[in-house]
Amino acid sequence: MATAAALNTYPYTRDQRFFARLAMGVAAFIVFAFAQWALRGFVSPTTVPVWVHLHGLAMLGWLGLFVTQNLLADGQNMALHRKLGWLSFALVIIIAGLGMFTGRMAVELHRVPPFFTNAFFLALTHVEATAFAVMVGSGIAMRKHTQWHRRLMFGATILVMEPAFGRLVPAPILGPVFTPMIQLALQLGVVAIIAGHDLKMTGAVHPATRIVGAVLMLVTGTILALAAFPPFVSLAEGIAAGG
Q1: pLDDT value of residue 4
Q2: Phi, psi dihedrals of residue 195, rounded to the nearest 5°
Q3: Domain count across the chain
Q4: pTM, whole model, 2 decimals?
């Protein structure tokens, strides 16, 4: 049976190549999902509000930084890795703020996708933005514990894979209940890849990997609960009606 020491103290260089490759794969997938959505004509860049473009640029910045940080760790350039780590903290604050603002404005300007309710979309953008910031903050706080740190940072990025998966699943057919459940299953599939790696390395799933899976389920459950909670529904409808 794997010991706590085996789970937390084996040298990060032993398997950093795995995390670097997975980071590149996750980032490439997210970019592909959004690119094919635009190429298929589901979004018109010229009519999208400026804050949506800013949010997209901030997210691209996160993906670029996320991949760079994993490559730096793989190359054992930890000095630059640590310096850039503080940049991620500032970027996350911007991303979370823009995410919430974009969600609220989508409701206010009646830009919510027709297959979602106003309450669902408002909950989706606010809960995910908050959870993303909290998970990154937790990852930074655990920076001296590498095995925890990198899994929590991956968890934050897996969390924001949700809108990428949403652009590949048939949301108009699945509706506002089954769509997030399918997206959650796909997100947990990525977590399962890390869990499988944990088992290969130490014979047990790391606690941080388990926490990431639990957080993803909690986020989805919270969104669905808020979307059906009458006071929150009234709040969303009030925003849609102009306050």
Answers
A1: 56
A2: -60, -40
A3: 1
A4: 0.91
Tally Cβ neighbours within 10 Å of residue 102.
18
Instruction: List b or e across 117-153, with b for residues whose CB sees 16 or more CB atoms inside 10 angstroms.
Output: bbbbbbbbbbbbbebbbbbbbbbbebeeebbbbbbbb
Q: Which two tokens stand for residue 98?
A: 């823009």
Owning domain of residue 210: 4-240
- Residue (of 198, 189, 210) closest to 19 by Cα position: 198
- In sequence order, which residues have a C-beta less than 8 Å from that of residue 41 and are 6 or more positions away? none
Which of 76, 202, 87, 80 is closest to 147 using CA atoms?
A: 202
Sequence-distant (6+) residues with CB within 8 A of 117 are 176, 227, 233, 236
Query: Is the dihedral angle over the CA atoms 188, 13, 69, 92 positive or is it negative?
Result: positive
Name the band, by pLDDT with cuts 50, 70 and 90, for residue 114. Answer: confident
Contact (CB, 8 A) for 131 and 187: no
| Size (the chain), residues | 243
C-alpha–C-alpha distance, residues 125 and 118, integer Å: 11
Q: Could you give the residue ranges of the DSSP H alpha helices within the chain?
A: 4-9, 16-39, 50-74, 78-108, 118-141, 146-159, 162-166, 171-202, 207-227, 230-240
In angstroms, what CA-CA distances link 201 with 14, 24, 190? 9, 21, 17
Q: Tell me the Ramachandran region of residue 76: left when phi exceeds 0, alpha when psi lies from -120 to 50, beta otherwise.
A: left
